[in-house]
Amino acid sequence: MLSFTNILRCQRRIIESPVRIFIRNLHRDPIPVAWEKPQIGWTKLNFDGSCKDSAGKASIGGVFRNYEAFLFLLGYAESIGRTTSMISELAALRRGLELVLENGWGNVWLEGDSKSLVDIILKRKLVRCKEAQRQVSYINLIIPELKNCLVTHVFREGNRAADKLARIAYQLQKPKIWRHIPPDTILQILHENAEACLPNASFGRNVLPPQRTPKKENAFPSRKRLHFESEVKYIYTNDNDPQPPSP
């Protein structure tokens, strides 16, 4: 049996441990999270799905930008009725991919803040929900149609523009698309994202980042292939096309 002294010592450890953990976490340096711009020749889609827990009402949103960072290409927002959080995330990605095909963008970086969704796409995981699996199957049909495709996860702080559009969608009576001119509600977010990527540029001015000389690749194209790699997190289908940026 434990002595009275040992019992007190154990109680003291149990009480002090959460305090020490809290203090350790309090002093831990925060990890900065920022939106990253794609390389030259690439288009980046940030997408997000939103779901109100109380009513189950869901909406989607997404933002397309290119390597100039501050140049807004396209945004979309749509209310999709009652559904789950995962299906809203999948619907946001699916709608974004449909717009990719409509606009003829070949080299595309897809980024969302749902780690589960990214894992489902990259690792070809099956999901139990039939509607979710239907969305996944459709997405997996579109991705091979792209020349190059990068798929990554980002924390919500780096996905604020898409999150904002998804929240705006709750108030919309019909789907909305913005081309070249973003809604006022995300101007500040776009400005902050651009400043983080281009410290010397200001939003709305024609200031471009220095262009990098692309590396020479093998002149003979290889056979088309589709890669799903959970660690590297990219998918590409042609060696002679611009290679995916490093995550």
From TrEMBL:
Gene3D superfamilies listed in its UniProt record: Ribonuclease H-like superfamily/Ribonuclease H
Superkingdom of origin organism: Eukaryota
Domain RNase H type-1: 39-171
Family matches, as Pfam families: RVT_3
GO MF entry, a single one: RNA-DNA hybrid ribonuclease activity
Name by which UniProt lists this protein: RNase H type-1 domain-containing protein
Organism whose genome encodes this protein: Populus deltoides
